[in-house]
Design goal:
The chain is an alpha/beta fold. It has two domains: 1-174, serine acetyltransferase, domain 1 (Orthogonal Bundle), CATH 1.10.3130; 181-303, 3 Solenoid (UDP N-Acetylglucosamine Acyltransferase, domain 1). Helices cover 46% and strands 13% of the residues. The protein contains eleven helices and 15 strands. Strands 3-6-9-12-14-15 form a six-stranded mixed sheet. It has a five-stranded parallel sheet with strand order 1-4-7-10-13. It is globular. The termini are far apart.
Length: 303
Amino acid sequence: MSNNANVTKSQALRRRTITSSEDTIGASLPTEAQILNTQHEIWSAVREEASAEVEREPILAGFLQNTVLKHSSLESLLSFHLAGRLSSESLSSMLLRELIDETVDSDPHIGQAIHTDLQAVHDRDPASHGYLTPLLYFKGFHALQSYRVAHRLWTQDRRVLAVHLQNRISEVFGADIHPAASIGCGVLIDHGTSVVIGETAVVEDNVSMLHEVTLGGTGKETGDRHPKVRHGVLIGAGAKLLGNIEIGACAKIGAGSVVLDSVPPYRTAAGVPACLVGEAHIGDPALEMDQSIPHSFTDGSGI
């Protein structure tokens, strides 16, 4: 397949899988048939890439056959792969796979979220180079999909098991996401290292965040105490969002910022403590991944 054909196919999948706030204004939601068709196309692309790599890199042929090509769906592949990564002396890979399969089967939303999140990584991370690499190797993606299983367990009142899985996710993937947190679809956690998302945090659809982001509390208070991140938000690397604050739709948070107050929609906040420094001039910063912010320097300024 030519590069132009690959780009065209990718753009078509992106349009059908990830929709921004601008895209959905006045537009009908995709039908179930359209969703299934898009999921099928993503799965077909994964298999094509795996088959090509078997020819290109024979040393990985056995791994790719067992992990990708012998499976009939993206959900089956991910269940097998995550079970192997998260297994331990206390939970074997076989038990974990049964648990993941049972959980995904009980909530069709999880399967849809897996496809949408994978498309988000493909579209927004230039290091993805297709679908196969992030699916097999990106721990931010793995941590998010594992959280989805733990979250389902939490909602089923299997809370000790959910926290057990949360702990293992933190050990293996380096991201600590509380299973009670609410996270939407089309979410990118780039790199994943040292990301912390607290118990009462909310992350809506089509949000992007980079490594070392914290959605935390401000102390030992209980109850609703974590940030609410609305759709289309971009959170730069190392940003700390603390307390029960709201980050408005399509806002942008600069890298390394400490955000203690709510940020209005379509605004850019940066600094320690963060303050408003400008407008977010693009529709959905999370989709565009433009991490630059307004800035100026004079002689002798800076650190």
